[in-house]
Every structure is written in structure tokens, then in C-alpha cells.
Amino acid sequence: MTQAEIKLCSLLLQEHFGEIVEKIGVHLIRTGSQPLRVIAHDTGTSLDQVKKALCVLIHHNLVIYRVHKRSVVEYEAQCSRVLRMLRYPRYIYTTKTLYSDSGELIVEELLLNGKMTMSAVVKKVADRLTETMEDGKTMDYAEVSTAFVRLADTHFVQRCPLVPATDSSDPGPPPPAPTLVINEKDMYLVPKLSLIGKGKRRRSSDEDAAGEPKAKKPKYTDHKEPIPDDGIYWQVNLDRFHQHFRDQAIVSAVANRMDQTSSEIVRTMLRMSEITTPSSAPFTQPLSSNEIFRSLPVGYNISKQVLDQYLTLLADDPLEFIGKSGDSGGGMFVINLHKALASLATATLESVIQERFGSRCARIFRLVLQKKHLEQKQVEDFAMIPAKEAKDMLYKMLSENFMSLQEIPKTPDHAPSRTFYLYTVNVLSAARMLLHRCYKSIANLIERRQFETKENKRLLEKSQRVEAIIASMQATGAEEVQLQEIEEMITAPERQQLETLKRNVNKLDASEIQVDETIFLLESYIESTMKRL
């Protein structure tokens, strides 16, 4: 765990959950697993606050607990899971593109709340969608339920582990902490609920003013009717989203290298393998040419012969994204996911070198990557770059850890005159170094955004007050002149300052998302490589 990762985790926890949760979370990240009383003592926080903070972190899957010998329960932070909070906007946007507004809000609610029952999610989402609709229109629970079922069928949401039912006749003492279990067959099994109803709008302020005071309103609660899916909680399956992002990156890479038809064929193969292939597998399941042809999108008019030509072309490509594993069924093909991720990570490194050091350095980097090991004189000759420039470029990349130097002595004394000095590229270590820099960049972007917001806090609060006044006046049917007078409370220089702030914050947000895309590719490559070692 590097300092850059710890700092980024600290910023994310503080932004999402506040200071107390951030203090407990960062302490666990730094120290590893610890029991409750030690956490309270080391952080100087009251036992009650530590319990509440741990409850929040466990509920959001950011901390796990284990029962050790002598029945001591220890809590351990999941740093990698904390860093996933960076990707929340991307998860939500992806769901919106795949499953429209209902799916977007379902995933948003589950991410914000950690775990929820299906009935609670459906009602909350229906209410939120009804709020955005025109007067007289409402969102039906059944429509939101359908979107939830589709998300579960495609494994984007999954059930949380449950406490197994215990035998009440067992006289032994209860365990110090419950053990959560779940059957893999039930992970995506949606309970049969008959949710009948429509989303409700919140009462507007003028209705509240005209009606009874809130404290005196009678509460209509029916304690007899149990919640239909009580105890069955759901959470977002982040691994499934990562599988989708990886597939999209591979499809995009094929489209850039070849053409749209090739990318559509690869997309079809990945879609057929979505549920059958585990997200960590190095290859997809073998697919026959006939199966691929039958699964192509409706209206995609290419003949079987043309498809076979495209598959042969993809299989013969030097990048080896597609491999041929047999000849039955018109030919069996697999997607080499590990090689695809390695190619994407290498392309990312090349792009960074080109942006930082120029195209000549990128040419040298590609050359060394291709030839594996090269002496300085060989680099000069192959790259056709003058000796002085080649030397400067090699040393520059060496000092930035994009390259490494390997010594091969002719004699045991390691005399420089009798030693070969070979330049080589260790893609794994270079990817790790770049990933570390990405974490630092994201932390800097978040700090800058917080600074910009804090500096203009007074102006932002004033703008929000004015907007609230205008909204309430519009609801009561105020005249245009009155609204204009309220708008003039913010002067022209202040309005310009607000526009600049908005533009800067939008740029910082977009930069965070772009850096996170690089982080995802590098993390996926490193994880895939470590599993093969």
C-alpha cells in the first residue's frame, strides 16, 4: 500500500462519509486488521463512534471482519474497494446507456446505500422518477421491477450473503460475529414480488403550509403486513461492470485497428461469453463460426463466407486478440483476454511516453519492446537516431523508470569494459509505476476541486439561495419582473466568477474520469498478469 493510495483513500472516505469514518478507515488501511477496542484506543475515538463508523464501512463493503482464536473479532479495510468509489459515476452512466433511467437510478441507490432490499429500491426509484415527470404522470412499480430483474439477469446486481438459519434448540453460546454465506445458484435469483402501485410525489411547500403541521399529521402504518423480501439484500456487482468496461475497451481497440465490422464480430463474441466466462479468465469459452454467425445483430447483413474471412483475418493479426482453437463447427475461436489487456496497457505506456518525451522516444520504446534487449549502439542503428540524442532519450526514460538496464558481465569482476549493458522494458513494473502516478494525479485533482469550491463557498451559497427563492416564486406564479429583480441580486462580476468556477470544476471532474480510465486498464493488466505468474 503506497502513500499515494492511502492519501487517495483518505480523500474519498472524507468526501463520501465525513471525518470520523475517514479517520477509522485510514487507520485500518495503515495498520491492517485490528480489534474494536484497539481501534478506539489508537484513534482516540469513543467506542460508540467507532462502532457506528465500522457499521457504515461494513455496510458499504469497505471493511470486512474475521473471527480469530479466542473469539476475537478483527476488522480489516479493503483499500481496493475504497478506490472503486472513484468509478461510481462511470458505473451509473454505463447503466443509463444500457438500461435507461430506471436502471441508472437503481444502481445509483444501491451505490449510495451500500445494500438495499429490492422492494425498497423499486419504491425509492419509482418515487424519484415520478418527481421528474409532468403533473398527472407517475412511474409504475412494475416497470422499475422489470429493470431490476434485467440487471440481475445480466449479473450487474447480486444478492448479499446472509446469516444462515440456526437451530433454535442449540444450547451453545452465540458466535462473537455472524458468518455470512450464500449459494452461488441464488446470487442472481430475484424474489417473486407482487409490487403493485405507482411512485408518489413529495408534498410541495405550499401544500404543507395549507395542510396540517407535520407533527400533527396522522401516520398510516400497517405493522401487520411484513415486507415481502425482508432480509434479502442486494448490492452492485462491480466485477461485472469491470468485465463490461474491459469488453468495451477491446471492441474499441479492434475498431481502431481494423474496421467497424471486425469490432462488431468481437462484440458479438464477448456478448456470447459474458455469463459463461468468469471475469478473471485469460480466455473466453471457444465459440464456433456457426454460433457467431447466428448471434450477429439483426440487420447486420454479412454472409457466412465474409464472416469466416474476417475471423481468419482477426486470428492472423500480430496482436493475437483472437485465437483459433479448433476446426469443428466451421472453426472454433477464442478471445485472448490477457493478450488484449497487455496490448492495451502497452499502448497506454507508449501514449504517455509520446506525450511526455516526444515521438522519437516513443519510437525507441516500441523498438526496445519489440526486440526485448538492445545495446545503446543497436538502438541508435535500428531507430536511425544520432548517438547523442539516442543516449539522452534512453537515459531520460531510464531515470523515469519506463526502461531498465540489464548488466551481462563477460568476466566475474564486472569490469565496465567487459560488460554488456542491455536496455529492456519490463511492462509490468512500468505499468505499476504509471498506476502509482495516476493515483497521485487523482488525489491532486480532488484536492484542487475541493480548494476551488472552498474558495468560492460564500458565492455558491448565495447562488443556491437565489435559485431557491426563484423556484419558490415560480411555483406561486410570480411575475417576470419580480423574478428578474431576484436574479439581479447576483452581480455581473459574481456571475462571471460562478461561470469560471463551474467551468474549472467540470474540467477537473472530466480529468478525474479520464485518469480513472487509465487506472482501470493498468489495474486490469496487472491483475491478469499476476494470476498467470
UniProtKB/TrEMBL annotation:
Domain (RNA polymerase III Rpc82 C -terminal): residue spans on this chain: 147-344
Main location: nucleus
Subcellular localization(s) per the UniProt record: Nucleus
Pfam families according to UniProt: HTH_9 (PF08221), RNA_pol_Rpc82 (PF05645), RPC3_helical (PF20912), WHD_POLR3C (PF22536)
Keyword Transcription regulation: no
GO biological process, one term: positive regulation of interferon-beta production
GO molecular function: single-stranded DNA binding
Keywords, sorted A to Z: Antiviral defense, DNA-directed RNA polymerase, Nucleus, Transcription
Top-level taxonomic group: Eukaryota
Subunit structure comment from the entry: Component of the RNA polymerase III complex consisting of 17 subunits: a ten-subunit horseshoe-shaped catalytic core composed of POLR3A/RPC1, POLR3B/RPC2, POLR1C/RPAC1, POLR1D/RPAC2, POLR3K/RPC10, POLR2E/RPABC1, POLR2F/RPABC2, POLR2H/RPABC3, POLR2K/RPABC4 and POLR2L/RPABC5; a mobile stalk composed of two subunits POLR3H/RPC8 and CRCP/RPC9, protruding from the core and functioning primarily in transcription initiation; and additional subunits homologous to general transcription factors of the RNA polymerase II machinery, POLR3C/RPC3-POLR3F/RPC6-POLR3G/RPC7 heterotrimer required for transcription initiation and POLR3D/RPC4-POLR3E/RPC5 heterodimer involved in both transcription initiation and termination.
Protein's gene: Polr3c
Family membership noted in the UniProt record: Belongs to the eukaryotic RPC3/POLR3C RNA polymerase subunit family.
Biased amino acid composition, Basic and acidic residues: 211-226
Residue ranges, annotated region (Disordered): 162-181, 197-226
Name of the featured protein: DNA-directed RNA polymerase III subunit RPC3
InterPro entries reported in the protein's UniProt record: POLR3C_WHD, RNA_pol_III_RPC82-rel_HTH, RNA_pol_III_Rpc82_C, RPC3, WH-like_DNA-bd_sf
Source organism (scientific name): Peromyscus maniculatus bairdii
One GO location term (cellular component): nucleoplasm
Residue intervals of the DNA-directed RNA polymerase III subunit RPC3 winged-helix domain: 349-425
Biological function: DNA-dependent RNA polymerase catalyzes the transcription of DNA into RNA using the four ribonucleoside triphosphates as substrates. Specific core component of RNA polymerase III which synthesizes small RNAs, such as 5S rRNA and tRNAs.
Keyword Nucleus: yes
